[in-house]
């Protein structure tokens, strides 16, 4: 997952991931508020969250693509392992992405 500052940037990253066959599906959550401390200041910002469905072997390329297109100095790029899922859906993710 990654948080981005606006919908246009989030859509651009999502489309790039799909065009490169690095993700099977991406959910855009357009209205989140992030609270965090950065460089000694408490911040509160509106952001968009992308949830990217992919396979583990694509992570390195996804991280590089996001880092290249992300406007933040330190972008949030987090991967979580799937422990369980509908087998047919997990197979679709596998078939929809390339290593």
From TrEMBL:
Report TM segments.
Answer: none
Q: Which InterPro entries match?
A: Ion_tolerance_CutA, N-reg_PII-like_a/b, N-reg_PII/ATP_PRibTrfase_C
**A Pfam family recorded for this sequence:** CutA1
Taxonomy, superkingdom: Bacteria
What family does the Swiss-Prot or TrEMBL record give for this protein?
Belongs to the CutA family.
Which protein, by its recorded name, is this? Divalent-cation tolerance protein CutA
Instruction: State the species of origin.
Output: Candidatus Thiothrix phosphatis
Its encoding gene is what?
Answer: cutA
């Amino acid at each position: 997952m990654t948080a981005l500052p606006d919908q246009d940037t989030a859509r651009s990253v999502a489309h790039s991931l799909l065009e490169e066959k690095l993700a099977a599906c991406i959910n855009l959550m357009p209205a989140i508020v992030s609270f965090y401390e950065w460089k000694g200041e408490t911040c509160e910002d509106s952001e968009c969250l992308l949830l990217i469905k992919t396979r583990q072997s694509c992570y390195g390329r996804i991280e590089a693509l996001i880092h290249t297109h992300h406007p933040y100095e330190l972008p949030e790029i987090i991967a979580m392992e799937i422990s369980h899922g509908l087998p047919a859906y997990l197979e679709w993710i596998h078939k929809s992405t390339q290593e």
